[in-house]
Every structure is written in structure tokens, then in C-alpha cells.
Amino acid sequence: MLADHVHPQLEERYEVLQGEVTFSVDRKPRRAGAGERLVVPAGVRHSFENTGTGVARVVAEADPALALRESIQDGAVLTQTEKFTANGKPRSLRALVEAAALAARYRETVVLCSPPPLVQRVLFPLLARFAVRKPEPAPVRAR
Before 8, cis peptide (omega within 30)? Predict the structure, then answer.
């Protein structure tokens, strides 16, 4: 399950291509199967999970896109390294620090609903200072 979150400035449009997905939009569940669409306006709390018995495929569009793709890719890396529980909770202090850095980096694109936004604005930038920084690419020199 993807943690409840809000996109302050972007609208998301989903289309289920395969399987069954249950969306929670403003804390109201809505099941959707193949061919069904759903729109989540900017600023609305939402999440979703695969509630079918097999693979679910979903297409998501965002307007404006901002850094949504990058935030999803970076979040997937943290998830794939098993630093989080199935419901998105950090398994360690290091995982919490990395999640805080992710949240601080993409705060204009996505805001988690827990902990409360005020706590995130104060605590996450402080925690993010302890995150392992991605190395910058070496400058390319012309010959």
C-alpha cells in the first residue's frame, strides 16, 4: 500500500489497465478494475493498493508533472532495499533519515499525511542533513 499523501500543486489521473486497485480518496475507498478511471484533484489526500488476486497495472498522469516521476523512482529505491514495512513505515533510524531526506527533497511535489505536515516541515530538513548524499556526476571535460 502506498502511504496517504497529498500533491499540493498537481492533479493525478489514474486508469486501471489490469487487475483491481482500491484507491482511498479523501479517506473514502473506491475499488477500480480494468478500464476504470479516477481523478484526484490537487490537495486531496489519497493512496492506493493492489487489492486483486494478481498483478495490477495502472497508468498515472500528473498535471503539472513537477518532479513526480523522480519522487516515485527514488521512493521505489528505498522500498526495494527493504528499509520500509509493507505499509511504508521505516524499519530503522537510517531508513527514517533517508525517508526524511526524500520528503524534504520533493516537498513541493508530494506531502505525506503522517507525521503531520508541521512536524515534517520542522523535523525532516533536520533529519535530512544526516542522509547519505548521492554523489554528483564528475564534470565532463572537453578535449
Answer: no
